[in-house]
Amino acid sequence: xRAPFTTLLVAxxxxxxxxSGSASGGPSTAASQAPAEAGFVSLFNGRDLDxxxxxxxxxxxxxxxxxxxxxxxxxLFTTKxxxxxxxxxxxxLPPAGNNGLAIRYPGTxxxxxxxxxxxxxxxxPNPKYATLDPRQAHGSAYGMVPSIRGHLKPVGEWNQEExxxxxxxxxxxxxxxxxxxxxxxxxxxxxxDSPHPGKDRTEGHFGFAGHSDPVAFRNVRIRELP
Length: 226
Prior knowledge:
By secondary structure, the chain is mainly β. It is about 10% helix and about 35% strand. It folds into 2 domains: about 1-40, no CATH class; about 45-225, Jelly Rolls (Sandwich). The protein contains 2 helices and 13 strands; from the N terminus they run ααβββββββββββββ. The strands form 2 sheets. Strands 1, 3, 4, 6, 9, 10, 11 and 13 form an 8-stranded antiparallel β-sheet that branches. It starts with 7 loop residues before the first helix and ends with a strand. About 35% of the residues are buried.
């Protein structure tokens, strides 16, 4: 998901808003007035889980981020459903942290199987995952298509990710590097020979698939595509 996260439009708006505040003698409100990236809509207001449903008891808003509660989890997902879209977000992993991005989730079941896919969010360099199947590494379409490893930031730092879903294709850009670019329509072999009945879904919710670790997400925004 590592397309540029700031735009000239945002920067210009910030400068103009700051100048306006100074000219009027009042405080500058540039940060709140600056427009978001063109076409993107925020999915998280930074204060509460308004617009989200599912495992709301397994998550909390902490320091302006959606965080999975330690020992809790489940699938937290948007009330709205999406077909084709681009999602941009930031995430921070604790040591051995495990979560996932639920793509076209139907609202029930395991998002890795019932949804189009679960894109792994995982501290895969951790020794705990030394024998990991490549299709379980960070950014992988869980159990179906492996990602390219080695582009996560150190544990405790914020990573930037962009996911583009169009038809049966998914592209994942992590910290500026494309780590997955695949067409799930062509997948016929599955990890542990476990079927993925939801992989051909054309619509569903976007969400987080928590696995008891305090993984945090912020600056979550989406742009719907034709």
